[in-house]
Amino acid sequence: MATIRDVAKLASVSVATVSRVINKNGYVNKQTEIKVLESMKLLNYKPHTIARALSNKQTYTLALILPDITNPFFPELARAIEDTATKFGYSLILANSDSNKEKTTSYIESLTNRYVDGIIFASHELSLDKINQIKDSGIPMATLDRAVNLKGLPSIGVQNYEGGIMAVKHLLSMGCSKIGHICGPIYYHTSIERYKGYVDALEDINQFHPSYVVQGDFSIESGFEMANRLLSNHPEIDGIFAANDLMAVGALKALIRLKKKIPEEVALIGFDGISITSQMEPEISTIAQPIYQIGAMAVNCLIDQIQKKIPCEQSGQELELKLVARASTLKSKGHSSI
Amino acid sequence: MATIRDVAKLASVSVATVSRVINKNGYVNKQTEIKVLESMKLLNYKPHTIARALSNKQTYTLALILPDITNPFFPELARAIEDTATKFGYSLILANSDSNKEKTTSYIESLTNRYVDGIIFASHELSLDKINQIKDSGIPMATLDRAVNLKGLPSIGVQNYEGGIMAVKHLLSMGCSKIGHICGPIYYHTSIERYKGYVDALEDINQFHPSYVVQGDFSIESGFEMANRLLSNHPEIDGIFAANDLMAVGALKALIRLKKKIPEEVALIGFDGISITSQMEPEISTIAQPIYQIGAMAVNCLIDQIQKKIPCEQSGQELELKLVARASTLKSKGHSSI
DNA sequence: TTGTAGGCGTTATCAT
DNA sequence: ATGATAACGCCTACAA
Questions:
Q1: B4 Cβ contacts chain C strand, under 7 Å
Q2: A79 closest CB neighbour out of B70, B92, B115
Q3: Strand C neighbours among A 33-62, CB < 7 A
């Protein structure tokens, strides 16, 4: 491997000059620049990223901490983040925290020692001391899903409340009148907002029944179980809004086993817009998050902080959701959507 | 951030001594060791990973190149790899190649410059020059799915041929007699082996019909399309073996739309054992790969190479598959499996 | 416009 | 058993 010194020697200049042409900073004569460039080609010289990192304190590496890449919500997000990071010349380190406090702490420590340039936190489990731990280390970070809402802590999220309303209104527009809700864990901000949207949309028309709400944990299994419970307690229910797509998938399974005609007898809508919803039969309607955009924004935000040292403008921004109406809600002559 | 020099000063020893206790090599007096250790605690000293990497030429970072983390096969693999890497103190860089030659090349270059300690290649697209490119760079690598079979190139795979036989035999044991096959792209080693297994199992009993085979591209969409084609050309088919689970999912969708009773009229089995198969209704039978184990072995193999400089023993090993019989093949009083 | 030299934080070779 | 000190490869004042 050729070093900067080899290049300097071959081009008969100093390493400083070579460094200048590499980094395009400082004055350098056009002639010498060409000479240097040629030498670099000749020697097939590539700057040593590690050495550069030591000197610069920039590793061009980002880290993504998420609960579990095996959860179908995250691959799409990870993809967006990796794509965008790569676009800017950054590598992406993946960390599965299992929403576990110890693992999270240990990852943060290890990433801090590796001097990653930024950390994206897509996990709900983010205690205040963890945040401060990162802040103290001086590493820029961004959180997703509004895990926390802190001054100076960039966070990208979606309009969960409005999404809840959209889901219910869609169900109503398809003729449902007894709408059940499988909500997520109540200690998640996202669950609560979606739930509130559900409540408000129904209270508006005096149709809210507390017993039509059951609580799952965002997993397929809980969706299956809760849909069964909902329908055994309230056979009259003709529409279900699941707080996320995975629970909707579980609910679909339950509905099919119960021999319910979908959407005629029971319509079903999820939330998130992950691709698995379109692979089911019938395809499941959903309130889609701009997942790719969220990931891309998070990276942009981080890189802004890293490079321009500016705080993220998108901080706290809530992106819009989009209704994706599919077979699980579209009755015969129902309306459609994009 | 405290440096090794700070620790040395506080403990009134030289940096060399501190380095010795950090790395537990060389002689060091018990007393001084304690003094040094205390100083480290006191200053909350953590060795600077980057500096260490520069000196050691070891970054404690592995890279995983795969086609697309969004493909449901890969998150499970990535999870296994990340888990195992972490266990050994390594971080994992994720790279989505989209099976694209240029992207792959550019990743390899970038990873090479980052001096990752090892690369795991889970992509089918691996031309010989790419391999040599990595080999020349001296970075240990491992490939999955027997993408290539080269002397000295560790490769972990499964018994695809036997798997094909298992799938067909299972279908036969459930009473199917007209078994179709949706095979994968013929330029993939895995596709061919599975196909051969299918052929041999049927030829054994004189039941092989070339026209019962159609070709997909491992995607859900192609599975959907090919199942439709298969059944429209051969309505008598009562069993389908899809060469991977994603195509099985697509096929399931097609069968349901065609109002086929599953498994009574048409039984269906996939290949891979990804979790999505158990989330469908009916649940899809499959020939399961030990995905987690594969990932773990790949990492072990790499770390063996890195640390002990020994070639991987598992090189070229083909792991066993396991039949997972579920509702999509289990007729009434059918047999079961683990 | 270009070169010299010190520093980034560790490791490892030699002495002592 | 311990300590100087030269690498590792690059960047960047500061000089020239």
A1: yes
A2: B70
A3: 33, 51, 54-55
HSE on the CB side for B33, CA within 13 Å?
11
Query: In which residue ranges of chain B is CATH 1.10.260.40 found?
Result: 4-56
CATH of A160-289, one of 3.30.450.20, 3.40.80.10, 3.40.50.2300, 3.90.480.20: 3.40.50.2300
Instruction: Determine whether the distance from the CB of A32 to the nearest atom of strand C is below 7 Å.
Output: yes
Tell whether B316 lies on the interface with A, counting CB pairs under 8 A.
no
A120: tokens are 């994206």
Q: What is the pLDDT at residue A151?
A: 64
Give residue B328's Cα distance to chain centre.
25
Q: Which of A69, A220, A247 to mutate to test the interface with B (most CBs of B within 10 A)?
A: A69
Closest Cα in chain B to A219: B279
DSSP structural state of residue B333: T
Whether A69 sits inside 8 A of B68 (CB atoms) is no
Q: Phi/psi zone of residue A142: left (φ > 0), alpha (ψ -120 to 50 degrees), beta?
A: beta
- Name the segment(s) of chain B with CATH classification 3.40.50.2300: 61-157+291-319, 160-289
* A54 contacts B51? CB cut-off 8 A: yes
C-alpha distances in Å from residue B130, one per residue of A1, A44, A269, A327, B69: 18, 17, 46, 45, 21
**Nearest nucleotide to A55 by CA–C1' distance?**
C8
Structural domain A4-56, CATH architecture: Orthogonal Bundle (1.10)
- CB-to-strand D contacts below 7 angstroms: A 1, 3-5, 15-16, 19-20, 22-23, 25, 45-48, 51-52, 54-56; B 12-17, 20, 26-29, 31-33, 51, 54-55
Tell me the per-residue pLDDT of A9-63, one tens digit each, with 9 for 90 and over.
Answer: 999 999 999 999 999 998 999 999 999 999 999 999 999 999 999 999 999 999 9
Burial label, B205 (beta-carbon count in 10 A; 0-12, 13-18, 19+):
exposed
E strand or H helix at B128, and its extent? Answer: helix B128-137
Looking at the domain A61-157+291-319, which fold is it? Rossmann fold (3.40.50)
Structure tokens belonging to residue A257: 């086993």
Predicted structure pTM score: 0.94
Average pLDDT score over chain B: 92
Q: CB contact, 8 Å: A56 with chain B?
A: no
